[in-house]
Design goal:
Length: about 325
């Protein structure tokens, strides 16, 4: 009986990490795997030396406060709030005592989550992807690929806090090159269908999907629509291009999630979030799917091919 009792005792003492995301389990499988790898690099193996309680909002940000409250009530050792700015903000509001590791796409200092990048302060640290700051760059790449598009559609999520800033960045960038934009808003599945249909009605020549966890959870639907309607489109993460999307530009999210796992492991070993600098991305993925370009009848300029970090044949 002694080995059995010892195993049970060890299991009872296993630290529990609360992992809350604004995304879905399906579209985040590779990110969760990267997070676990970061934990493993610090000696914490899921199911052996650490337990992870997962909570997924599936793009419905209104669910996040109750998910966070549940994890706080369970007295998790560390609370992880990833999958968008809302998740990070909700985690920060849910507890001032449990260590927090966040992941977001904007500036955490401006959002009031940390005092500074080098010394976050309080019970919180994490990473930013800066992906919400890249819409102007994506617009430029899309125009370079489809220079003849008189009207470019922009898909935004009005419930996602960074959306307002994304549009503020896009409009002057479009005006500077005399590019007309048509903005379509979607917060749920019905609105997404209507927004995509409006691109056809307005006869956009291409469209840009702005950074939003909600859209990531509907990746296959959006990429499928673009293929069906033969519309060029640009997205934030490499997963879109791998799934058949034409072009993507943004940070390497898996690398950041791995860093988050490493931070959680270091905190479990006794380090304080206040002393762990906010991690910023070091890799930006620019993918072009040549197979999709061929299906759309597009010729990719040599300058874009040279700039792309990865070309899908």
């Amino acid at each position: 009986m002694w080995p059995l009792l010892a195993a049970r005792a060890q299991q009872a003492e296993m630290p529990v990490v609360g992992f809350m995301s604004g995304r879905s389990q399906k579209d985040s499988a590779h990110l969760a795997a990267a997070f676990r790898q970061g934990l493993a690099d610090t000696g914490f193996i899921e199911g052996q030396t650490v337990k992870i309680e997962y909570r997924w909002a599936n793009g419905d940000y209104e669910k996040l406060p109750s998910l966070a409250a549940d994890l706080v009530d369970r007295k998790v050792a560390v609370l992880v709030g990833v999958g968008g700015d809302v998740s990070a903000a909700v985690a920060a509001k849910a507890t001032k005592t449990i260590p927090i590791v966040f992941g977001m796409g904007s500036d955490p200092v401006k959002a009031g989550l940390v005092a500074s990048f080098s010394r976050p302060g309080g019970n919180i640290t994490g990473f930013t992807l800066w992906t919400n700051e890249m819409e102007s760059k994506r617009l430029g790449l899309l125009r370079e690929l489809v220079p003849g598009a008189a009207l470019i559609g922009v898909l935004v999520n009005p419930s996602f806090p960074p959306t307002e800033q994304e549009l503020l960045d896009l409009k002057p960038a479009a005006k500077a090159v005399n590019q007309k934009l048509f903005v379509a808003r979607a917060n749920d599945d019905a609105e997404l269908d209507a927004a995509l249909a409006s691109f056809v009605e307005q006869r956009v020549g291409a469209f840009l999907v702005t950074a939003s966890p909600f859209f990531d959870t509907r990746l296959e639907r959006i990429v499928g629509f673009a293929a069906e309607k033969r519309l060029p489109a640009i997205y934030q993460f490499r997963e879109y291009a791998i799934a058949g999307g034409l072009i993507s530009y943004g940070p390497n999210a898996a690398e950041s999630y791995k860093n988050a796992g490493t931070y959680v492991g270091r905190i479990l070993k006794g380090e304080k979030p206040a002393d762990l600098p906010v991690v910023q991305p070091t890799k930006f993925d620019f993918l072009i799917n040549l197979k999709t370009a061929k299906a759309l009848g597009l010729t990719v300029p040599p300058t874009l091919l040279a700039e792309a970090g990865e070309v899908i044949e």
